Amino acid sequence: MEVLREKVEEEEAAEREEAAERAEWAEKMERMTKTAEVSKEETIMTQDELRDLEKRLTSIEISIPAEYSFINKSLIDVTKLPPSYSTNSPKEEHLLQVADNFSRQYSHLCPDRVPLFLCPLNECNVPKFVSTTLRPTLMPYPELYNWDSCSQFVSDFLTMVPLLDPLKPVIKEEEKAMPKKYTVKPPRDLTSKFEQEQENKRLQEIKNQEEKRLREAEERLLAEEKAKPDPLHGLRVHCWVLVLAGKREVPESFFIDPLTAHSYSTKDDHFLGIESLWNHKNYWINMQDCWNCCKELVFDLGDPVRWEYMLLGTDKPHLSLTEEDEDVLDDDDDIDNLGKEEEDKSFDMPPSWVAQIEITPDEFETRCPNGKKVIRYKRAQLEKWAPYLNNNGLVCRLTVYEDLQCTKVLEIKEWYQNREDTLELKHINKITGLHVDYFRPGHPQALRVHSYKSMLPEMDRVMEFYEKIRVDGLIKREETPLTMTEYYQGRSDFLSYRHINFGPRVKKLTQNSAESNPRPMVKITERFLRNPAKPADEDVAERVFLIVEERIQLRYHCRDDYITSSKREFLRRTEVDSKGNKIIMTPDMCISFEVEPMEHTKKLLYQYETMIHLKNEEKLSRHQAWESELEVLEILKLREEEDDAHMLTISIYDTKRNEKSKEYREAMERVLHEEHMRQVESQLDYLAPFLAQLPPGEKLTRWQAVRLKDECLSDFKQRLIDKANLIQARFEKETQELQKKQQWYQENQVTLSPEDEDLYLSYCSQAMFRIRILEQRLNRHKELAPLKYLALEEKLYKDPRLVDFVKVFV
User: Fold this and answer.
1) What residues form DSSP beta bridges with 450?
2) Bridge partners of 616?
3) Residue in 488, 457, 462 with CA at minimum distance from that of residue 475
4) Got the DSSP string for 577-621?
5) In contact, 76 and 123? CB cutoff 8 Å
6) Is 180 helix (H, G, I), strand (E, B) or coil?
7) pLDDT digits (tens, 9 = 90+) for 381-423
8) Pair 96, 119: CB distance under 8 Å
9) Using an 8 Å Cβ cutoff, are 578 and 560 in contact?
10) DSSP state, 61?
11) pLDDT-flagged residues of the chain (< 70)
12) What radius of gyration do the chain's Cα atoms show?
């Protein structure tokens, strides 16, 4: 009974819910009917209102935008294109109709999606189906949403992290293990702790203010970025390359950017979705939801639920199934198709109308239209040029800006190629004004890196060199207005470091330069590496020449089992006193500290010989320091000339740009042409013009033969005379023009500028060269003319047509 009672209660509750739903539905329909009636009453207009509305609507002008074309027709000569560019075959017309029908159905079924990219206009404004623009060797092209955000610019500078020394803990443990029975008390710290605390507070306050300023600047830049959202986010549509997995051992599908040739995963966050993709055989529409970009897309083109195909073809990709599903489908197909004839409903894609791409060597070297390409990033701009397009060899420039509007430049990087000065990279910091030039191996001064703020001498700069190329082993030179530091490597004297301190230069009336008026040297510090051939107590580690104080300090290398090293100091005095008496070596002129005293080092003779040797070394070091100053001036002068000239190197195989190779080739061609002409002249019939004067078919008489011989010799003689007169006339003309130019120079010599004098000297050099050549030609012609005349006379006597008559006559 309880079960029946529960069942009855459930039925009654269901009836009550159904009655409530009916009442709610009736109330809703009644409310909608009233609303429709009210709206119908409101929409009733008078005749005047209708005329007024029609008048307003007709006054609205809609500007229809012209169809956008991404092809620059000014760079294309349409008349030279094949007929397939300007016309469509019947099969292509049929394909366009199929594509139009397919597009209409798609727009009707999917009105909220972007129109399909099916039949764009080509160079001749003729619609072409996208699949026919591809050749069979090309890969499928997906129509993808744009790479929405530009790639972030990554600075080339790396933050150097100091490495922990693994030996420090061991040293500390050893120090702890050492007995501390005898220790030296450290000196008292007499500095004021209050002043030190105040200074630390001041520095910390400055540091906090700087951090606050940087933080505010960063927040301001972030606010500027957030204040300007991208209005075209998700609306840009571009074409990319899709490589499907499976064939050619491709493990997984991936995208390729056709402009940069960079590959990306299909799960990359920058790809927002795919509208469609196509190859040279078919066209597919993506029916999958791209809410999570392309991460969850399935690239199984045989699945009509995920990819709607346009053309029904026999080579359509098959659906990816398991082996069991494939066996079941095969059995079902065999049963369904039993006794039925196969109906071919496939559509063969027309062949590609695009001509084969031919790239000439010049176009390949240009790399982009007009040889220049500009790529803009967030706070950066990258410019690229083709080689040899710029006279200074510039091929790439990267400009980094501080703001998003790209108005304030932070730094500039310029890459060069084919420079004679081997300049490879120039880095300019606009904030600090620091210029850094990088060079390839091959610079005349073995320069590798040059850092500077000004090209004026005796300013802050750093020069690095290729140590294997330089004989002196110099690898680095640092210069300031008052110091110069040099670092060496691989020297036979084990010198590794030299530091020179300069004093103020004594002003002279003449020009103050390092060559005429060098800076006075105050101190020279040199350091040496360990020489294993010498004992540590005799191997100098550092020597200091205090030139103004007339002292020389030596510090020797420390022994392996010692913690202190020997030191020695010499008081350098003049060899004679004020009265002219010779000063001898005294014990107070040498102060030394030796770890293990030796008898021979305490002798005055040893100390005297050491001091004389150090004096000579001091002269040598001062001379080398002076040569270093001259070398810096020479490098600066050379760099200014190289920047002004910016000559480029050209390969000998580049016959287009190499003038020397071109001149050599033209000279060889001229020699071959002259040789060919001589061969042709030797084969010419020298009697043909004179035999043509005789009646055809008439037999030659003795008198006619003699006359022919005389006329031929006379004509040849006259031509030799005319050629000599022509050379003589050209020689006289050049001589007269040179004399006129010399006379003009004598009259205007005082008022001429250096440029005019250079032009005059250049003209005189060229004129003298031409006169010398003409003179040689005239002398050579005078020598060869008689020989040529005798040679022709001998040929006439031996000619088979004249030999009988001439011999009898003679």
Assistant:
1) 437, 463
2) none
3) 488
4) -TTSPBPPP-GGGEEEE-SS--TGGGSHHHHHHHHHHHHHHHHHH
5) yes
6) coil
7) 999 999 999 999 999 999 999 888 889 999 999 999 999 999 9
8) yes
9) no
10) -
11) 1-11, 14-15, 17-51, 53-75, 137-182, 224-228, 313-346, 508-516, 573-583, 681-686, 697, 806-810
12) 48
Cα(566)–Cα(695) distance, rounded to whole angstroms? 119
Phi, psi of 664 (to 5 degrees): -65, -40
Residue with token string 């966050």: 269
| Residue pair 47/53 in contact by the 8 Å Cβ criterion | no
In angstroms, the CA 244 to CA 254 distance is 7
CA distance 458 to 483: 9
Tell me how far apart the terminal alpha carbons of the chain are, to the nearest angstrom. Answer: 165
For residue 637, what are the CA distances in angstroms to 294, 418, 515, 632? 59, 21, 13, 9
φ, ψ of residue 193 to 5 degrees: the values are -70, -30
d(CA 662, CA 652): 9
Nearest to 518 by CA among 499, 534, 503, 537: 503
Q: In whole angstroms, what is the distance from residue 751 CA to residue 212 CA?
A: 66
Q: What is the DSSP letter of 305?
A: T
User: Which tokens in the block code for residue 240?
Assistant: 């990319």
For residue 160, report the phi and psi dihedrals to the nearest 5 degrees: -80, 120
Q: Is 48 exposed, middle or buried (0-12, 13-18, 19+ CB in 10 A)?
A: exposed
CB 310 within 8 Å of CB 102: yes
Residues 6 or more apart in contact with residue 510 via CB below 8 angstroms:
516, 517
Lookup result for tokens 């305490």: 602
Q: Is the pTM of this model over 0.85?
A: no
**CA 121 to CA 356: how far, in whole Å?**
19
C-alpha to C-alpha distance for 680 and 674, rounded to whole angstroms: 10
Q: How far apart are CA 714 and CA 793, in angstroms?
A: 11
CA distance 84 to 126: 10
The tokens describing 668, both together, are: 């060889």
Task: Dig out the tokens for 39 from the structure.
Answer: 């709206």
Write out the DSSP string of 459-502.
SSEEEEE-TTT-SS-EEEEEE-SSEEEEEE-S-TT-EEEEEEEE
CB 119 within 8 A of CB 102: no
The answer to whether 691 and 708 are in contact (CB under 8 A) is yes
CA dist list (Å): 252 to 239, 263, 277: 20, 12, 17
Q: What angle do CA 343, 344, 347 make, to 5 degrees?
A: 150
The torsion angle over the Cα atoms of residues 360, 365, 368 and 374, rounded to 10 degrees, is 180
* Count of Cβ atoms closer than 10 Å to residue 273 Cβ: 19
Tens digit of each residue's pLDDT (9 = 90 or more) over 128-143: 999 898 877 644 444 4
